[in-house]
Structure to design on (308 residues):
């Protein structure tokens, strides 16, 4: 079972709201290569693993990914809190805002809601571990892409997410 | 990155972040290397530091874990009433 | 979990399968504050992104 610690794994303190950036970051929460998928993948796969060590690593990483999705949600929250309707509409975030306002709702950048199709759990140890390696690579790729394309001096998250 | 001096609370909170991260990392290493004695000693050392730091933080400022909620000398249930992590700060 | 050396036990590595080299406890960052920011306590796992994408 799970416990919760009342702190982020790495601090998030965003000074300037930015709704445009928020909708891109949201995909790292509920998107196909996002943290929610990562967590559900590892936590789902662990049951059918034939070795205790593998069940252990999947449990512990799956748990850590929950801490990561908390950081991503926090980034989105801090990027959008206290914005006016006009500011949000101008930013292009309006499509999300109309359904969710400043609530956090897991979905991909393209609009697809989070669902289990974003991960696989085949019950075969080798297959599942390959899925894990592929998933981690796509998640890393996405984060590197963010850094390269959206270099923002006011968002300084740690590489802890990797 | 601001250069002002951290308050005692901020410093302890930061230390808890670093120590807990170290524990997580070594925990995950040990999951796949369960007989590595050197790793286990390293982990034990940091787990002890983590527990100590958590208890100290709970006593001075409020609990970060439910299991530290008894160390607080509280007349209100701080776990619920104190700010939540996504609001920023400690 | 067994740690087989690729050179020594070459016949235990059939083709058409993927293998992951085994991590050993070689180094840990001395400056743990730095490790926290980098995102790992193991220097060999620090692999910063330096390029953009693969282009022919």
């Amino acid at each position: 079972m799970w416990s919760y610690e009342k702190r982020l794994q790495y601090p998030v303190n965003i000074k300037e709201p930015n709704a445009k950036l928020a909708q891109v970051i949201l995909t790292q929460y509920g998107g196909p290569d996002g943290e929610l998928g990562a967590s559900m993948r590892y936590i789902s796969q662990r049951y059918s693993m034939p070795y205790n060590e593998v069940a252990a690593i999947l449990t512990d990483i799956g748990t850590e990914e929950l801490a990561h999705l908390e950081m991503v949600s926090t980034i989105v929250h801090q990027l959008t809190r206290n914005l006016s309707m006009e500011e949000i509409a101008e930013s292009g975030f309006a499509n999300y805002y109309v359904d969710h306002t400043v609530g956090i709702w897991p979905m991909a950048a393209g609009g697809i809601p989070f669902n289990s199709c974003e991960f696989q759990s085949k019950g075969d140890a080798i297959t599942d571990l390959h899925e894990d390696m592929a998933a981690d690579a796509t998640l890393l790729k996405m984060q590197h892409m963010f850094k390269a394309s959206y270099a923002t001096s006011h968002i300084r998250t740690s590489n802890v997410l990797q | 990155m601001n250069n002002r001096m951290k308050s005692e609370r901020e410093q302890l909170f930061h230390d808890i972040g670093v120590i807990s991260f170290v524990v997580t990392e070594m925990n995950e290493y040990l999951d796949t290397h369960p007989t590595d004695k050197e790793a286990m000693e390293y982990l034990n050392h940091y787990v002890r530091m983590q527990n100590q730091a958590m208890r100290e933080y709970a006593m001075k400022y409020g609990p970060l874990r439910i299991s530290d909620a008894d160390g607080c000398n509280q007349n209100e249930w701080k776990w619920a009433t104190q700010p939540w992590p996504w609001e920023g700060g400690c | 979990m067994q740690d087989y050396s690729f050179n020594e036990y070459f016949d235990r590595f059939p083709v058409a399968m993927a293998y992951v080299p085994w991590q050993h406890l070689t180094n840990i960052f001395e400056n743990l504050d730095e490790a926290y920011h980098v995102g790992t306590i193991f220097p060999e796992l620090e692999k910063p992104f330096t390029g953009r994408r693969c282009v022919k």
Notes: Residues 23 and 37 of chain A are 17 Å apart (CA to CA). Chain A is about 55% helix and 0% strand. The two ends of chain A are 24 Å apart (CA to CA). Chain A has a mean pLDDT of 86.
